[in-house]
Amino acid sequence: MSQLELFAERASARSTTNFVTNMKLPVHRWYRYSAGYSAQWAERVILAELGESGRVLDPFVGSGTTMLAAQAVGSKSVGVESQPFVAAVARSKLNWSTSIRAFREANSAVLSYARARPVSISGFGSEPPLLQKCYSAENLGSLRLLQAAIRESEAEESVRGLQWLALMAILRPASHVGTAQWQYVLPNKSKARVINPIDGFGVQCETMAADMAHLQSTIANSPMAMLVEDDIRSMSTELPVCDFVLTSPPYANNYDYADATRLEMTFLGDVSSWADLRPIRDVLVHSCTQHMSGYDGEAALESEHLDCIRRELQAAYWQLDNVRQDRGGRKAYHLMVVGYFLSMAYAMKAIRKSLVSNGKACFVVGDSAPYGVHIPVEKWLGCLALAAGFNSYSFEKIRDRNTKWKNRKHRVPLHEGHLWVD
Ligand SMILES: C[S@@+](CC[C@H](N)C(=O)[O-])C[C@H]1O[C@@H](n2cnc3c(N)ncnc32)[C@H](O)[C@@H]1O
């Protein structure tokens, strides 16, 4: 089951590990991040494990759910995210305590700027092909006007960060092709409803201002929240010592966290070709076959960091390498799986290092079965946690997955749950 299918299944199951309920919650709803988990569940766990004192770490912070949940219950937090666009989303959401008056004034200025100028469609032909596929010339012209207005604004940085997020949040609703939030772009599908970018920007900013007012009236002193854009496997910044870890690492499920925001990054001019995704993929945990070109799986298997799971991992590696010979796509799942566990071995060590000696961690994880070969993710991550210096682990299953087999590529029953590490 692909990670996209997993997100869809989670959404329909309304489980505590999905982001759908967050779309009704102040601030969380500013950007739909299907890879995220439930904020209300995160608040409950942080309260139970940490209380108001102490600091929670999320080494795979994504859109910042853990950090916002920590603020809601009065706890300090540290978050690490290596995908630059996703880190910017989380950073902008953490700006909710900015002056609402300054935000509204800046929004009026942006809207006046955009409404006062004719939408230019003459530059459409020189826009990147992906954008030409996804937008009408008018809508892309309007989005460019909003972007220019924000760029030229003299508002303070936190206000501009919020406006940037408002613009990012309307990018997909302003496209007429299949761009369901946080999915790869589907240029051959069309959408029933397409928003007018300038009106949509105004509505999005007003939603954000209302949420800011709500949070500012309910959270008196917003607790410290430190977000670091870095690769947890090889941190260049020393993290403060934390008391508890709550996180959801990427799953070994072939979901490409770099490609997933290609539309946004192309609009921003950060990427213009597949090659530009490479440096982003390089800072991500290996969880996708697209990330594996040139990867030396056999050398990775020899790494001392994999000692505790090598025998079983090696068997899965060779089985996957065998199975793929008969498959059309010949996907390099064997490399992905080794890369994934080696990445997670480094991550476990960094996590252990940033926790107090009696610290505890909760990982939301799911197993996987590429080409039908079962990978016992929670067991192997548990072993890597012990190798990193933790004392014990246990797995609490939350739900079964892949039980409806119609149209499924394989019929291996899977599950998802919480890996608790002490
Ligand atoms: C499952 S998502 C986390 C979602 C998050 N719980 C939320 O609610 O928004 C995993 C995140 O880990 C990030 N990630 C992947 N590799 C990373 C690395 N090496 N260091 C830090 N973050 C990484 C991905 O970009 C992705 O945003």
Explained architecture:
There is one protein chain. This protein is an alpha/beta fold. The protein folds into two domains: 3-95 and 222-421, Vaccinia Virus protein VP39 (Rossmann fold, 3-Layer(aba) Sandwich), CATH 3.40.50; 97-218, no CATH class. It is 43% helix and 14% strand. The chain contains 15 helices and nine strands. It has helices at 3-13, 39-50, 65-72, 84-93, 100-116, 129-134, 137-152, 157-171, 197-218, 262-267, 278-282, 297-301, 310-324, 333-353, 377-387; strands at residues 55-58, 76-81, 177-178, 186-190, 225-229, 242-247, 355-366, 393-401, 414-421. The two termini are 30 Å apart. Bound molecules: S-adenosylmethionine. The site of S-adenosylmethionine has 22 residues, from strand 2.
Quantity of strands, as a count: 9
Q: Please outline the major beta sheet.
A: 7 strands, mixed
**Radius of gyration from the alpha-carbon trace, in angstroms:** 22 Å
Mean pLDDT: 91
* Tally of separate domains: 2
> Can you tell me the overall shape?
globular
Helices and strands, in order, run as: HHEHEHHHHHEEHEEHHHHHEHEE
Ligand identities: S-adenosylmethionine
Poorly predicted regions: 10-14
CATH class of the largest domain: Alpha Beta
Spatial strand sequence of the major β-sheet: 5-2-1-6-7-9-8
Classification by helices and strands: alpha/beta
CA distance, first residue to last residue: 30 Å
Q: What share of residues are in beta strands?
A: 5-15%
CATH topology (level 3) name of the largest domain: Rossmann fold
Number of separate helices: 15
**Oligomer state of the chains in this structure:** single chain
Q: Specify the CATH architecture of the largest domain.
A: 3-Layer(aba) Sandwich
What percent of the residues sit in helical stretches (DSSP H or I)? 40-55%
- The CATH superfamily of the largest domain is known as Vaccinia Virus protein VP39
